[in-house]
Amino acid sequence: MKRLSVITFLVLFLTIGISGQTLADENKSLSSGVPFYGEMTSNTSVDTFVFTTEKDGGEVYITLEDTTGGFHMTLYDANGNSVGLNFHSKAGGMSDISKTLAKGTYTLKVKPHNWSGISSASYKLKATYASAVNSRDSSTFEPNDTIETSMDIKSGVAYKSSSESYLDIDTYQFTTDKDGEVYILLDEATGGYHLTLYDDNGNRVGLNFHTRAGDVSYISKKLAKGTYYVKVKPHSWSGITSANYRLKATYASAISRNKSTFEPNDTMETSMAIKSGISYKSISETFYDIDTYQFTTTADGEVNIVLDETTGGFYLKLYDANGNAVTHDFHSKSGGVSKISRKLAKGTYYIKVTPYSWSGITSANYKLKATFKEGKVK
């Protein structure tokens, strides 16, 4: 009987643990991008987590939110050295750790911080790191907080998603087939957003942002062929806890063109070839919708371009094959006409049609016709 009592005591001791920890507080494995929902019932509790990254120099992004009390979290490497920490002191507070780290195993400790008037609190914890993405959400594309978990996007295709909280970072990647224009548009936003473009080495090559719902951010750059990453993250939110957006990146790659709008055609590399003397009717779906066309003259001579039947103001621009501006014209009202008449050397040229001075409208139609000396158009 005495022996049984000793065994019972040992089992009870291991179950209760020391300093408020329980078996539930032992090391927990964190899967990349998968939230963990925890609760602490003592201000001396400590929850310990481990995860292993698979890439040197990879991003690690850890978020602690949906909290009902203050929490402190610290990240340690395999040698027990602290490599990152953050905390908040009130219910509803958020904390995050964003680091570039060597591959290996890391330990994360979460503990109460500055509890006042409470004896228990819950939280949601998520760590996203370089690891195989076995399942991606079909509507939010999560997990995609880091470059290593980014989602591939196609040229000229619009992707709608949402930021579930102010700490939610969405990362996308694309690969251009040749040097040329890249046009990235973030619109239909119900909150402020920061839009950043990185090259394959993690260097920032472009950024833009807006602070209010309904505003737009865009990046227009000439880039060398290669792989790039787009990060979308909340910016300057006020009075909201989540927001939606639409993202479209147009770049040099294989495309599927819409027969009525000719999209995607935001860049020279995705421009649509037009024939001499043929009228093309299209629409600018938003103020930031750029339409690009190309034509090739087979001999030196006069080129005439007319943009009419417009329901809004438009800018008409002509560029040579190297992307140098040749000339332009514009009008600012519905019903206006823009014209370009120019003697040009034989070669390939590009026409860009962009909205101009819109007031009280969100989309507009137009008709484009170019007359030039023509051979066969592919």
Distance between the amino and carboxyl termini: 94 Å
Using the alpha-carbon principal axes, give the shape. elongated
- Residues in helices, as a percent range: under 10%
How many extended strands?
Answer: 27
Question: What structural category do the secondary elements indicate?
Answer: mainly beta
Average predicted confidence as pLDDT: 93
Cα radius of gyration in angstroms:
28 Å
Which oligomeric form is depicted?
A: single chain
Mind explaining what this structure looks like?
With 378 residues, this protein is mostly beta strands. The chain is built from 1 helix and 27 strands. The chain has a 5-stranded mixed sheet, with no helix packed on it. Strand 5 and strand 6 form a beta hairpin. The longest helix has 15 residues, at 2-16.
Task: Write a concise synopsis of the structure shown.
By secondary structure, the chain is mainly beta. It has one helix at residues 2-16, and strands at 28-29, 36-40, 47-53, 58-65, 71-76, 82-88, 95-101, 104-112, 121-128, 151-152, 158-163, 170-176, 180-187, 193-198, 204-210, 217-223, 226-234, 243-250, 272-273, 279-284, 291-297, 301-308, 314-319, 325-331, 338-344, 347-355, 364-371. It contains one helix and 27 strands.
